[in-house]
Design brief:
By secondary structure, the protein is of the alpha/beta class. Helices cover 33% and strands 26% of the residues. It is built from ten helices and eleven strands. Helix 3 crosses helix 4. The longest helix is centred in the N-terminal third of the chain and has 23 residues. It starts with 19 loop residues before the first strand and ends in a 5-residue tail after the last strand.
C-alpha cells in the first residue's frame, strides 16, 4: 500500500533517508488491470522509487504479465542477452580465478534460466531463485533447480558467485535481500549486482521539465542512484571491489539505444561520473562480517 504523504514521506529504500519529495504518479500493470503508484525521489542520495509495497505488487500478478516473463518473447530475450550473460560469467571467473566448471553459482531472479544453462553446460553447479511460478516450472522441466525465495535454499549450501542481475530493484526491502544473501557466499565468494542507472537521465528530464513516464522509470520499485546503491551495499555488509559501466554483449538494440549504451559510459569516463545506462558492481562481504 502507498504510505507517503507530504507530512509523512516514505523513506528511501537505498539510504533510508526520510528527506524525500514526491515527483509524480504513474501506473503499474497487474494481472487484472493496473494501479496508480506515487513516485518519490530521495533528496539525499537521488534514488527514485515507487511508494507501493512490491510484495503486494507480486501477489497481484505484476510479474506474471511483464514482458520479461512472457514465454512468447523468450527467444528474443535469449538472443538479445545471452552474450551479456556470458560476459557476466567471465567477470565472475576473472575475479574468482576459477573456471566455470569448478564454480557454484546462484542466480537470483533467473527468469527463463538462461544463466543456469550456461553454468551447467560448462560443468558447474547452478541454482536459481525465481518468484514467477510458471518460469520455475519451465526451468524444472530442463532438470535445473530453482526456489521461489532466497530463504528456501538449504542453509548448508554456499556459492562461489551469487548474481543479482536486474533483480534487486524489484525487492520491497533490498537491504534485507542483501543481508540474506551474504551468509550464502563461500569464503572468498563474490556478489555480482547489475542495476539500471536511470537517475542521471531522470535528473536531466526534470531539468528540461519533461514529464516522467513509465517508459522512463521502468516497472521497478527502486531506481537506485550510484550513491544510493553504494550506501545500500556498504550498509548491508559488502565492499565494492570493481564497478563496470561499459557492458558487453547486448544485442538487438534500437539505434538510439545502441548509441546511448556506447556514448554514456564514455561521457562517464571523461567526467569521472557513473553515467552508463547500467552498472555492474562486483562485491565481497566486508571484513569482520559474517
Amino acid at each position: 500500500m502507498p504510505t507517503g504523504t507530504a507530512l509523512n514521506p516514505p523513506r528511501c529504500g537505498a539510504c533510508l533517508s526520510a528527506k524525500t519529495s514526491e515527483l509524480t504518479t504513474l501506473p503499474l500493470y497487474l494481472r487484472n488491470g493496473e494501479i496508480t503508484t506515487a513516485v518519490w525521489r530521495c533528496d539525499d542520495c537521488g534514488t527514485v522509487f515507487r511508494d507501493i509495497d512490491f510484495n503486494r505488487v507480486a501477489a497481484l500478478g505484476h510479474f506474471d504479465v511483464a514482458s520479461y516473463t512472457d514465454p512468447h518473447l523468450e527467444q528474443r530475450l535469449y538472443c538479445s542477452r545471452i552474450e551479456f550473460l556470458r560476459w557476466i560469467l567471465r567477470l565472475a571467473q576473472n575475479h574468482l580465478n576459477q573456471c566455470l566448471a569448478d564454480m557454484r553459482v546462484c542466480d537470483i531472479g533467473c527468469a527463463f534460466g538462461h544463466m543456469l544453462d550456461l553454468v551447467v553446460s560448462a560443468g558447474g553447479v547452478a541454482v536459481g531463485v525465481e518468484i514467477v511460478d510458471t518460469l520455475r516450472t519451465r526451468i524444472a522441466q530442463r532438470g535445473l533447480r530453482t526456489y521461489r525465495t532466497i530463504d528456501e535454499i538449504p542453509r548448508a549450501e554456499s556459492f562461489d558467485a551469487i548474481l543479482l542481475i536486474d533483480s534487486l530493484y524489484y525487492f520491497e526491502d533490498p537491504a534485507a535481500a542483501l543481508r540474506a544473501v551474504r551468509p550464502r557466499l563461500a569464503p572468498d565468494g563474490i556478489l555480482i549486482l547489475r542495476t539500471a542507472n536511470r537517475t542521471p537521465a531522470l535528473k536531466l528530464l526534470r531539468l528540461l521539465r519533461i514529464p516522467l513516464t513509465s517508459a522512463h522509470l521502468g516497472d521497478v520499485k527502486n531506481n537506485f542512484s550510484y550513491t544510493g546503491i553504494c550506501h545500500l551495499l556498504m550498509a548491508s555488509g559488502y565492499r565494492i571491489i570493481d564497478v563496470r559501466q561499459h557492458e558487453c554483449g547486448r544485442r538487438g538494440q534500437r539505434p538510439l539505444t545502441w548509441l546511448y549504451y556506447r556514448l554514456a559510459p564514455i561521457a562517464g569516463w571523461l567526467t569521472r561520473r557513473k553515467l552508463g545506462p547500467g552498472l555492474v558492481l562486483i562485491c565481497r562481504p566486508s571484513r569482520g562480517m559474517g
